[in-house]
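Lecture notes, structural biology module. Today: joint structure prediction for complexes of two components.
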Amino acid sequence: MRYYTNIFAVYLTLFLAFIVNLLPWFGQGISWRPDFVLLVLIFWVIRAPQLCNIGVAWFAGLLMDLATGGLFGQFALAYALTTFFAANYQRRLVLYNIWQQAAYVFVLLMLSQLTILILKLFTGHDVPSWHYFFPSIMGIILWQIYMVASGQQRLNQR
Amino acid sequence: MGLMKGVHKKLEPQQSPTFFVRGARPFARLVFFAALSLAFMAVDSRFNYLAKVRLGLVTVVHPLEVLANTPSEWYRSISAYFSTHNTLLRENTALKTLTFEQSVTLQKLNLIEAENTHLRSLLNANPAPKQQAILGEIIHMGRDPFTHKIVVNRGSSHSIITGQAVVDAAGVIGQVTRVYPFSSEVTLIIDKGLSIPIQIERNNLRAIAFGQGRDSTLDLPYLPANVDIIKGDKLVTSGIDGIYPAGLAIATVLKIERYPDSPFAHIVCLPTAGVNNHRQVMLLSIPTEVVNSSLSSIKPLAEKNVLEKPAQTPINSDQTIQKPITKKSSNAILH
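The predicted structure, tokenised, for the full assembly:
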């Protein structure tokens, strides 16, 4: 299978993910909504590291910080750290099958949430309940649904 | 064998073949960007330099927020279009009854207001401050589970300023903490950083309510274990802060726990207003007297949590109400 990746596709999907993140969620959905921007970032970092790397992730995180109104730079740091672990092991990751990849992506999603949690604890917030990690679970479910539905054997660029 | 022995030494230092070239190493990039974001965080929490940058970038992000809101707008306008005749009739009858009931109450209010102005003039007291309200709509809620903030579609172009109280039909929901040109950020009363001067409706006991941060409840700390509060007591704004008008409903006492090892009662209150489930909110302007006398001193109560926000105004001497007591000693260390 041959994938066509270009820089336009990367930015378009990131833009759409950002819009979805900004959607006004109400009710139960709030605690379950996954971080779409991070999912798209991880996807592109594994698929096309030459187009989307830590710098792009960092800037996307900065925009998220603006949208959430939190401390400037916390999402940026979390995204940079997460995409680092995706980019650093990218050559190994593309050899795994989609279920092994999903396990690793789940670790990455949790890592991003943990980074923000640690930053929050430093600024004097309480430890949240375990519901805090729901977005990661929802995120990996969506990831895997997409992977299986699109019939990909593994996520590599060839 | 002798020839092969030195091969690994000749190959060192290992270099990536050219077809693996990906620019700078991931680790170098990480170090660079992590340092940059740590610097941003430090600057944002300690100084005021980034306020302008934030203002500029938020103006860029604002159209996206509006765009993200269009699908739900369409959905609502379409479902409003297809609402049935019966529903509208029922709603109409209900609203008419409500208007009738409220107009009766309003007549009494006019009478009382006139009487009050008269009494105040007799006593030579200052006239009660008038407050105006602007209707705003929530355009987006932060995805951060630690901070309870919403973004409302009214900003400095609609003459919103920081510190304004935000209410819905049932009571107070929060306070404006950041103002952008076309939107503003409202910290909800359940946020850990927000505190409100309150009064118990039953016995006029004054206290300060703090957001609990996690369970959508409010805390009333620093009240002695033998305090006269019972379950079901209503908390209203006391009005002494000059920001919230007096008598707005805030919360109802949910439970009172008294521990033998603590001199303070642990009082948990449930917000009256639908803090998390409205789209329209009212932004009340700050009473004019206060604006005239000490505009610079109005700081949102949420400023307690200094690390989360840049200081917006220089610290003034008359902050006895705005900055009551630091809730946790851990916060005090960080200051």
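Point to remember: Helices of chain B lie at 2-5, 7-11, 26-46, 50-81, 85-122, 288-293, 329-334.
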